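Please produce the structure of this protein holding zinc ion.
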Amino acid sequence: MWTCNRCGETVEDQFDRCWKCSTPKGQGVPDTKPKRRMAYKYFRGTLASWDELFSDAAAFATDVGPEQVLGVSHSCDECDGVVTVWYWTTENAAKTPRDQPEP
Ligand SMILES: [Zn+2]
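Below is the modeled complex.
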C-alpha cells in the first residue's frame, strides 16, 4: 500500500497511479487549499446598551454569513459590555478587522 501525495488516498501496490485522481506513485503535491483561520470582532462600549452591542454584532455576523460564524460570546468587564463574534476566515483573507479606537 502507498499513499497518494495529492489526495491522500491509500492505493494498492499493484497500481502505479492513484485510482482516484490518477496521480502517478511518488508524484504530485498536496492540494493547496487556503488554510482556515479563526478570527473575531468585538463590540464594546461603556455608554452603549446591550441592545446596541448585540444589534451591532448581529449585523456583523449577518455580513460574515451563516457558514462562517462560529459563535457569539459576551461578557461584562467592569460595567463595560463586550460582545465578541467568532468566525472562520482564510489566511489569504484580509487581516482580522479590529475596532477603531473611539475618539
Ligand atoms: Zn490521488
